[in-house]
Write a structure and sequence with these properties.
six-stranded antiparallel β-sheet, 2 helices, rod-shaped
Length: 134
């Protein structure tokens, strides 16, 4: 897999990979001392920003290198991929349901029109003689 740009915002439980962000449903990471993680795929470097303690940041950013990627960045990318697949599946199911509903609606309209039970859109209804209202 090509290394990508990754941004993790721990308080918001958001992971962004190449600008595509997802809030993760499950957050099983032990990162209470981390505020954010930045990873730059082109240089294969990044940094970890510490979380403030009592409103103050007690230490500077921790620089990370390619050797740190698997332990400190990849778990977030893996969780992001799971969330992305989950959302893609939900979207596909919703689109299929909407498509099926529209197909059924069109089929029902066509069947009813064939029977002559309702007026066709953009046409005036034609009633038998002697009928003034319905």
């Amino acid at each position: 897999m090509t290394t990508k740009n990754v941004c993790v915002i721990v308080p918001d439980k958001v992971v962004s990979v190449d600008g595509e962000a997802y809030a993760l449903d499950t957050w099983s990471f032990d990162d209470s001392k981390v505020w954010a993680i930045q990873w730059y795929g082109s240089s294969k470097t990044g940094d970890i920003e510490p979380a403030p303690v009592n409103g103050k940041i007690e230490a500077g950013n921790e620089d990370i290198t390619e050797g740190d990627y698997d332990a400190k960045v990849k778990p977030y990318v893996d969780a992001w991929e799971v969330q992305k697949a989950k959302i893609a599946t939900a979207v596909a199911e919703a689109e299929k349901k909407q498509s099926d509903e529209m197909a059924a609606k069109i089929a029902n309209r066509a069947a009813v029109r064939k029977l002559g039970k309702i007026p066709v859109e953009n046409r005036l209804p034609i009633y038998p003689s002697g009928v003034e209202s319905i």
